[in-house]
Design a protein that fits this description.
By secondary structure, the chain is mainly α. The chain contains seven helices and two strands, in the order H-H-H-E-H-H-E-H-H.
Length: 153
């Protein structure tokens, strides 16, 4: 599929510590609730599970939101600004830095996150979070994946 068709990565959003929906969650809200709210925002057909396409749609939405200057690449500065705008607070010190988050999926090592790298990273993270290997993500898989991916290695 083309990137535009393979559209917020929940997993990448989780990696970035963002929320793809227009909702802003208070910092004191439990991480599971944030993950569940994100899951519900991404579950387009409300069937209680996220398909790869629903997950990819979230990833594209997140990338587009972060790419403020619309140059097709996201810098750590753009990522930081998007986090504050969406979450209403700066990233927590125990979370990965934006540069570390980009490095996870920056296949060419240039320090920038392209749409293609983001889409590929989204798919890879979806596969990692799908622990029961049924081809879908449950709320629990998404919440567990979110928690794991936000932590520094």
């Amino acid at each position: 599929m083309r990137y535009s068709q393979y559209t917020c990565t929940c997993s990448l959003m989780f990696l970035y510590g963002f929320v793809a929906s227009p909702c802003v969650f208070p910092a004191e809200q439990p991480k599971e609730n944030k993950a569940y709210a994100l899951f519900n925002a991404m579950d387009a057909n409300a069937d209680g599970k996220l398909s790869p396409d629903e997950h990819a749609a979230g990833a594209k939405k997140m990338f587009d939101m972060m790419d403020v200057n619309k140059d097709g690449a996201v810098t750590s500065g753009e990522m930081d600004a998007a986090h504050e705008k969406v979450a209403g607070h700066k990233a927590v010190k125990t979370d990965r830095s934006s540069a570390e988050k980009i490095k996870v999926v920056d296949t060419n090592g240039d320090g920038l996150l392209t749409a293609e790298e983001h889409a590929a990273g989204s798919k890879k993270m979806f596969d990692k979070m799908d622990t029961d290997r049924d081809g879908f993500l449950s709320k629990e898989e998404l919440a567990a994946g979110h928690e794991k991916m936000l932590q520094k290695p």
